[in-house]
# Entry
Amino acid sequence: MTNREPSKIEVQHTFPALDQSLYNLLPQDATFYKEVTGIEDDAALKQHILDIQAKAYKVAPYACIYLFLFTRRRLSALPAYQEVVRIGREWKNPIFLDVGCCFGNDIREVTLDGFPAARAIGTDLRQELWDLGHELFKSTPETFPAHFVGGDAFNPEILTVAPPASMQTAGVPTPDLNKLTSLNPLHGCVSVIHATAFFHLFKEDKQLHMARALAGLLSAEPGSIILGVHTGAQEKSVVNHVYKDVEVDMFAHSAESWTAMWDGEVFEKGTVKVDAQFREISEGAGGGERYPLLYWSVTRL
# Structure
């Protein structure tokens, strides 16, 4: 750990004290955590997760940590997930990039389903969160050989905007993933880019910038995909929402505006297929608070 100031998120206005009563491990998530940690006892697993949460919240008091969203199998809930699994199993030397990876939960999920760990990369602002991921999942860089690139994705030394790759510019040699210190060597090389609970952290202009930056990393191979889920709206707007004591003020795209951004502004119109679905979700059998989400994928044609 370092003594740097904790990271803050501009769109998040409240940073409540941790509340253990929010812990609610769903059966499918409990199965996943027991398999990857080796902890079978429910009480021991809960305490282990609470211990890691407390350490992480001191570094990054993010809503996803406060709300235990890192305990959810988010990636496999995406409509295009089986296509991601197929790419990992069938393509030659595929690359999976998880943007805003936190502990690397989603990388653990996709590698458990067959994507080669040595071909997976996580990136986040804080190295400490990735290191805590090894503690959370009881792994080491040797037992779990996925890679990590730390830094601000808006810093051009980490990620600069480049035009989307084309089949005419394809064939760039894949860099040595063991030696990555930025994402720039990956331009035109990445098969799958996952970005959940990431875009909504930024204003509209920065969302467009980041979309263009990630598009430059994507392979030109037909079927290469960018996907995720984040706060959405029926009409694009700034959304003020209070969810379990966490207040956020986010710019949210609609399904229509998100589709138009990717197919026309980011990529040349007609060169990608965009699937965007707006849903309001709630947790628990009783319904409770509902949260507006946009599930999406962008696939090269």
About this structure: The mean pLDDT is 91. The radius of gyration is 18 Å. The longest strand covers residues 272-282.
